[in-house]
Amino acid sequence: MAHPEHLEILQAGARVWNRWRQQNTQIRPNLRAADLKGVDLAGFNLRLTYLSSADLSRAYLFEANLSETNLQGANLSHCCLIGTDLQQAYFSGANLYHAYLSQANLTEAYFGHANLEKANLADSVVNQAYFGQADVKETDFTSVKNLNLLQLRLARNFELAILAKHDPQDQVRPSLT
């Protein structure tokens, strides 16, 4: 369960939360299983925060810092993560159905067993991100930076992912070999 004091500070707004984070660098915030559905967390410093099993569906996290954050089993469906720092974030088993992660930094993020169906990762940096057993059906990987197709070799529904903008006359898809 989320720490009540941490939730209270979060609800006070980005300025109060970020100041508290600067003054309490030794504390790793606990927002486990918190109901943050539809909450505006744009610009929040959530680095190293425990958000496992939290409900962040339809939340607005534009340009937030979620690097090294534990989001295991979290619900981020229809969430706005545009321009968010998600370096080394842990999304094991998370639900990112139809989430918007365009222009995000996903370097070394872990998406094992996550649901990324219909997620938008266009123009994101995915350097060394792990997608093993993640469902990438209709996931938009258009113009992603540093994507090695081997990163997707263990993903489910890889053949249904959107890997590049296609010319209608171009029927060639990148292969894993």
TrEMBL record:
Coiled coil: none
Domain of life: Bacteria
InterPro entries: 5peptide_repeat (IPR001646), Pentapeptide-BTB/POZ_domain (IPR051082)
Stated name of the protein: Pentapeptide repeat-containing protein
